[in-house]
Every structure is written in structure tokens, then in C-alpha cells.
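Proteins fold reproducibly. Next comes a concrete instance:

***
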Amino acid sequence: MNGEGKGPAEVPVVETAGLTRDFGDLRAVDGLDLVVRRGEMFALVGPDGAGKTTTIRMLCGILRPTSGRISILGRDLAHEAASVKSDIGYLSQRFSLYGDLTVDENIAFFAEVHGVTDYAVRREELLEFSRLTPFRKRLAERLSGGMKQKLALACTLVHSPRLLLLDEPTTGVDPVSRRDFWKILSNLLKSGITVLMSTPYLDEAERCSRVGLMNAGRLVAADTPRAVKGLMKGEVVEIVCGEIRRAFGLLKGWPGAGEVQLFGDRLNLVVGAASRDLPAVLTRLRDAGIDVRDWRVIPLSLENVFISVTGGAGPADKEMRS
């Protein structure tokens, strides 16, 4: 094969090589190799402490890596930080709006911070885009949680960045506002912007172009949601029963049960085929005096995959949300 008819490969928007960050004896990010292409929405998914926030803070230049390399739009962040930062919009978990300023005044303030002097047209676009025009004269402190997040996003976009870094942007936001926020993000993608976000919400990760599963500072899988799910084979059976912890102990490690995952008040079993493998499982539970109230075959989720590839039942169950 030859390369005739093909142009040069497009430079990734984000590329890291061996990215590592230590805090004393704690290694928060461990040798991260990551590539995000133009126009993608890429989600970093993992429990608290997985290294998601540390990664994003390094990508926007707030934290220096202990070792490794970061390239943003083909430029080395360590040596060209000033020029790179003008292309980045960063929305942190605790984005600081000014409560005593109106919606209009907050956008104006952040425009001036970013050196945008003629921002009137851009502000009108952002107000319309985020559906905040009717509230432009309202003080930020009087906005709902979801409206504050939309205003924070508008302030982040005022200088027209090419890369948007979002650190758990919808955590603590009500479901309706989450849905509105995602509609805004979907429209952003149509403009060619690239989005890299961290999220503990697995339903959000399902909407992204690609997803990276992080655990203990390492990227354990990165691909499209469908391809990541393809890492697991078989069927997932959800069992609702009494004495859930005892049931988990009975089945965990028992060869006939396949892989067992604990999800709150129910069990997920990953088996080769439910019709073949489930009868023995149900018999084992009932023989132990455990009341099996219901069971059903359910679609494989990213959470099932995460627990499987990290080899544990705890982190996702406690700290990741679907």
C-alpha cells in the first residue's frame, strides 16, 4: 500500500506521552498516554481519586507534570504555555462566578480577563446559545445551580477557544439542567470545537465519541463506548434478592457464577449464556435460604466493564453514577 491520495495526518488537539504527576508519595497520574482528535467529545471516566481532575489541571497548565509531555494543538505546553492557553477554555468543578455581578457583567469581566475587547456580539451569541438572554440583568448569586453552570460555560467560551476542558461540569446539577447542558455541548461540537471532559456519570460517557476509563492514575481502556463494552463477552443478568451481601459472598469466586458485581441492592452476573448458566446460580442461592425475588438479562453497561477491567466491585459501586 502507498499513501497516494492521502494528506498528512491531522495533528491531535491533545496528546500526552508518559504523563505523570506525584503529590509526595502519592502518584495521582501514572504514565498517561492520551490522544484526542479535533471535533471529538472525549470523556475521562473513573471513581474519585482516579486521576481525572489532576489530568485536566495539567492539560490546562495549572499543574506541572512530574514527568512526561503534553502537546496541545501541536504545541508543547511546557514551552509554549502562553500561546496555548488562548486556545483553551477550562471549566473547573468550582468555577468562580461573581455573585454580585449580573449575567451580562460576568461575561464582560471574563472577556476582559482573556483580552477580548470587542465582546458585545460574542456576548449576545453566548446569551442566546445558553438561553440566558431573559436573565441577563439578574445577579449571578440569584441564579439556579443549572443556570450558574450555563453562565460559567458562557464565560469559558467568551474568547472562542478551540479546546474545551470540563471537569465534572454537571456534578450536583438537577437532571433537567444536565439535559440542557448536554444540548449546549452537542451544539458546540457542530462548530468544530473539541471537548475533553471528566465525569462520574456513565450515561454522560455513553454520549461521547470516545471514553477513557481511569483507575489509580492509569488509563485502563480508551475507545468508543461500544468498543469499550466489547472488552466483555457474554450476558449480564441482574438478580434482586434478600441478604444481598451474603448472596454476593456465596457467588463471588464460585466457578458456576461467572463474574459477580455488586450494585447497591442487586447483583450483576456476567455469564457466558443466561439460559445455560443461571439455573445453577439460582439453585445455589435458594439452597442457602436466600429469597430470589426477580432476575432479568440487562444490556451491558460501561459500569460493568469498568468493574471488570479494574478487577473490583467497590469503586464504581460507591463513586460512579449512572
The CA atoms of residues 15 and 35 lie 5 Å apart. The longest helix spans residues 175-190.
